[in-house]
Structure formats: C-alpha cells, structure tokens
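Appendix C: a fully annotated inverse folding record. The material below is reproduced so that readers can follow the format used throughout the book. The structure is listed first as tokens, followed by the designed sequence.
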C-alpha cells in the first residue's frame, strides 16, 4: 500500500480540531507504523536470504522443519503487514485506534501460524488442545462481532 501524501495533508488540516490525546494517538500511531515498516523490511530481507541459501545448496527435498520455518516466516510477514495496515487505517480515519474485529482476526492468524510451526514430536497434547480452544473461542468472538456489525449497518 503506497503512502498517499494527501493523508498527511488531511492530518495537518484536522490537527487543530484534535484533542491533546488524539494528537498523542496520531503521533504514536505514525511512529509505530514506521517502526513496523522497518521490521517488515528487515524480516523480508531475512526471509529472502533464507530462501536464497536454500536455492544455493539446491535442496530438492525440503524437510518438514525447513518448510515450517519458511511458511512461518511468510505468515509472520503477513501478520505484520495486516497489523501495520490496521494502524495506518486508524491514522487515516481518525477513529478508534484499532478495531476489535481486526485485532481478533490478527490473533486468529497468529494461532494459525502456531499450528503451522508445531513440532508434533515434542509437543504435549494439552498444548494442542489449548491452541484449538483458543482458535474456536476467537472464531466465535469474530462471528459475534461480525453479526453485530451487520446488524448495525442494517439499522
């Protein structure tokens, strides 16, 4: 998502009507967004380096651990991108800092990532059950928030 300079112009134009706390939120949201952008770029560089190393040694048969590491890195990048998009959206729309529904969705993605990275040989069944219960509970919360949002739009 390219950064649109109009967003910063809009922020400057609305600056006088913002409360002190809203200004505080905006400043720190922008700072956090830029820090996350740097982390995403560094993580992507690390990911590319890992993939290039795999190509250099010409691994044809990728083992489960290597596949999990690569896929986990991809999911981590997607989670970070979504989280940064959420923060950037809050800056753009001067609304609540982050939407609960989006945070729940990000939490579901994090648990899905954990399922991908599970080492089935060294994990206790209670841990798997805890992840599963967490995923179901977050799914129910997401569903409730979605229904509530749709009902609010119909009124």
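Designed amino acids, in order:
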């Amino acid at each position: 998502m390219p950064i649109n300079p109009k967003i910063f112009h809009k922020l400057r134009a609305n600056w006088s009507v913002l409360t002190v706390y809203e200004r505080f939120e905006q400043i720190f949201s922008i700072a956090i967004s830029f820090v996350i952008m740097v982390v995403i770029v560094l993580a992507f560089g690390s990911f590319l380096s890992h993939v290039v190393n795999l190509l250099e040694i010409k691994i044809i048969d990728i083992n489960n651990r290597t596949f999990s590491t690569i896929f986990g890195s991809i999911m981590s990048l997607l989670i970070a991108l979504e989280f940064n998009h959420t923060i950037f959206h809050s800056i753009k729309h001067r609304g609540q800092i982050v939407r609960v529904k989006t945070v729940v969705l990000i939490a579901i993605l994090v648990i899905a990532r954990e399922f991908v990275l599970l080492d089935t040989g060294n994990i206790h069944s209670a841990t798997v059950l805890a992840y599963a219960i967490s995923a179901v509970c977050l799914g129910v919360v997401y569903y409730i928030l979605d229904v509530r949002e749709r009902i609010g739009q119909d009124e």
